[in-house]
């Protein structure tokens, strides 16, 4: 029984080996058939050809059966006596080569191996390339014989080779290819005698993947709980599909990966210290898009210093000239998850006095004004970096101004040195130079509500910068 099993498995292995290898039938009429022997007897051979058709060939019609792969191209044979033959090799053994002048005519001759100096294939070899997303740069080794030009054939996976393109060099760039697609290329030579060589090696490659588009429409909402809810529009991919999104953040002066999402939203539970978020789309091949980003303005405090001029208006103009000074303010952003802001401010302004005033006050000395106020604003974003915030403000202002007043036609020196309430409204324009530094332009109309110089209006124009904490 073991001997029978051994014979059976040996026969099975031989049968599989025979059927997996290509054979060639050289018929006496000169034709050559490539395929696989199915079975054979002393009288005939059952043969399945490349078209998967099985035919029976009588042995008296068969000239030779070749059990090895055949190079169907012509070769150059350099004899030791100096002669050169351009022939087709159809068989070989330990001592000789068998050649044909015409591959499909059964006229053959042999040559001793000892008489052959070397043989060179006529076809181009060493085909390779460098694929990109929509093209591939090809190069190959030239044929032994100078070719008139080369034919480049290519196909997509699962398809047949189409018409060739020509190249007079041993390089060529195949363009207008589909990205993320498998192609196979081969090259043949076309000789001056009108004969096309067999092909080079087949070079198979996959064009590079096009990364997906960056996400659009990133929006960040700060909730009452202090979370940052980040959302965005779905990204597209021309040669695949987006499978997830990666989120990065600038935190503590370093860009860090904070999470990923398979949908178009992500919640940052602890956004403290984050100044900007980045969203990157990732496709099914692992390619990443360029990052899209958005600044985050948390419910934090931004100190802002602005400096500029103050213009007394109305009756105020009679007493003092245009002055200058500055304001330090602290602003808290995104109250209740909206663009609502509140802040406190303190300023200091110097204004020069006037002489020859046509009123009871005939002269004023240099004065200064210290306003302390609370404000509330609502911010509108024109772009990610440019925004505007209209606001109203109110508080107390301390003013000190020496002046000379006529009392019973007698000049008497006095001094205004008392606090009084003030109110105002204005507009702030901000430009984010960086994620933390903001340039500010502020215009405000205000008035002192009551004091010795009650209801005197003024205008403030300031420019400055803020730093996000």
* CATH class group of the largest domain: Mainly Beta
The tally of beta strands, per DSSP, is 34
End-to-end CA span: 89 Å
Please outline the major beta sheet: 8 strands, antiparallel, barrel
Short characterization:
The chain is mainly beta.
Architecture overview:
By secondary structure, the protein is mainly beta. It has helices spanning 2-20, 316-319, and strands spanning 23-27, 32-40, 44-49, 54-58, 62-66, 75-79, 84-92, 96-100, 108-112, 116-121, 125-131, 136-141, 149-156, 165-167, 171-174, 182-190, 203-206, 219-222, 228-231, 242-251, 254-261, 265-268, 274-283, 292-295, 301-312, 323-335, 340-351, 361-364, 367-378, 380-381, 386-407, 410-432, 437-448, 456-467. The strands form seven sheets. It has an eight-stranded antiparallel beta barrel with strand order 25-26-27-29-31-32-33-34. It has a five-stranded antiparallel beta sheet with strand order 4-3-2-1-5, with helices on one face. It has a five-stranded antiparallel beta sheet with strand order 9-8-7-6-10, with no helix packed on it. A hairpin with a 4-residue loop joins strand 32 and strand 33 (437-448). The radius of gyration is 46 Å and the shape is rod-shaped.
């Amino acid at each position: 029984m073991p001997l029978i099993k051994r014979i059976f498995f040996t026969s099975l292995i031989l049968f599989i080996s025979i059927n997996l290898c290509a054979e060639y039938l050289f018929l006496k009429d000169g034709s050559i058939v490539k395929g696989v022997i199915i079975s054979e007897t002393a009288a005939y051979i059952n043969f399945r050809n490349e078209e998967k058709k099985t035919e029976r060939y009588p042995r008296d019609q068969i000239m030779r059966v070749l059990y090895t792969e055949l190079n169907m191209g012509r070769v150059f044979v350099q004899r030791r006596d100096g002669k050169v033959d351009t022939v087709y090799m159809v068989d070989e053994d330990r001592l000789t080569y068998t050649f044909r002048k015409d591959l499909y005519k059964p006229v053959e001759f042999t040559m001793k191996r000892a008489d052959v100096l070397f043989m060179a294939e006529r076809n181009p070899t060493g085909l390779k390339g460098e694929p990109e997303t929509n093209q591939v740069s090809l190069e190959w080794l030239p044929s032994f014989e100078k070719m008139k030009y080369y034919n480049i054939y290519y196909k997509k996976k699962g398809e047949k080779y189409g018409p060739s393109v020509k190249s007079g060099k041993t390089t060529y760039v195949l363009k207008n290819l589909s990205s993320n697609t498998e192609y196979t290329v081969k090259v043949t030579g076309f000789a001056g005698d009108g004969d096309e060589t067999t092909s080079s090696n087949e070079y198979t490659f996959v064009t590079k993947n096009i990364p997906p588009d960056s996400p659009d429409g990133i929006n960040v909402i700060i909730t009452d709980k202090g979370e940052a809810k980040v959302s965005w529009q779905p990204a597209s991919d021309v040669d695949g599909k987006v499978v997830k999104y990666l989120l990065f953040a600038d935190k503590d002066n370093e860009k860090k990966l904070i999470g990923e999402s398979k949908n178009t939203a992500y919640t940052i539970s602890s956004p403290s210290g984050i100044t900007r978020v980045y969203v990157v789309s990732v496709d099914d091949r692992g390619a990443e898009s360029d990052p899209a980003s958005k600044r985050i303005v948390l419910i934090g405090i931004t100190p802002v210093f602005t400096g500029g001029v103050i213009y007394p208006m109305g009756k105020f103009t009679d007493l003092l000239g245009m002055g200058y000074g500055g304001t330090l303010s602290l602003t808290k952003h995104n109250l209740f998850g909206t663009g609502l802001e509140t802040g406190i401010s303190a300023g200091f302004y110097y204004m020069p006095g006037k002489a020859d005033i046509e009123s009871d006050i005939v002269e004023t000395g240099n004065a200064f004004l210290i306003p302390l106020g609370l404000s509330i604003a609502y911010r509108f974003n024109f772009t990610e970096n440019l925004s505007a915030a209209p606001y109203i403000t109110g508080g107390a202002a301390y003013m000190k101004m020496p002046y000379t007043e006529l009392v019973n036609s007698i000049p008497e020196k006095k001094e205004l040195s008392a606090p009084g309430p003030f109110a105002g409204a204005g507009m702030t324009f901000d430009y984010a130079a960086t994620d933390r530094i903001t340039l500010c332009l502020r215009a405000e109309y205000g008035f002192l509500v009551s004091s010795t110089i009650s209801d005197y209006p003024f205008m403030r124009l300031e420019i400055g910068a803020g730093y996000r904490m």
